[in-house]
Amino acid sequence: MKKSFPLTSSTHKPERVVEAVKADIRKYLKRERRKPLPEEADFWDFDCRAGKDEPAATAIHVSEITKPVDTAAANNWDAVYIEILAKPAKRTATERNRDL
């Protein structure tokens, strides 16, 4: 998903628009995670970027995907750009798991 979400609405309060954007992002992530995985993959990983617009977007972790929406609302931006690209990934062993 590569989308610029408007944060202003003539019919909704700004708080409700922000919550709707966050809900849309979470819904997209859930939908992508339900897709069947290739055999060599363990989970769906996500490459995420967010910012005021596409050129200004910076890479972020998927767990922090809703924080830029809050930042945009606090700074009174007209819109926030969110990019989420799913890719299959394989888990790697951590130090703790290797010792077991």
Q: What's the end-to-end separation, in Å?
A: 39 Å
Question: Strand count, sense and closure of the main sheet?
Answer: 4 strands, antiparallel
Instruction: Name the helicity range.
Output: 25-40%
The strands making up the biggest β-sheet line up spatially as 1-4-2-3
Categorize the overall geometry. elongated
Order of helices and strands: EHEEHEH
Low-pLDDT segments: none
**Domains, number:** 1
- Beta-strand segment tally: 4
Please count the helical segments.
3
Specify the structural class: alpha+beta
Which band does the percent of strand residues land in?
Answer: 25-35%
Overall pLDDT score: 93
From the alpha-carbon coordinates, what is the Rg to the nearest angstrom? Answer: 16 Å
Describe the structure.
There is one protein chain. This protein has 100 residues and is an alpha+beta fold. It has one domain (2-91). Helix content is 33%, strand content 28%. The termini are far apart. The relative contact order is 0.25. The mean pLDDT is 93.
Which structural traits does this protein have?
100 residues; alpha+beta; 4-stranded antiparallel beta sheet; 33% helix; elongated
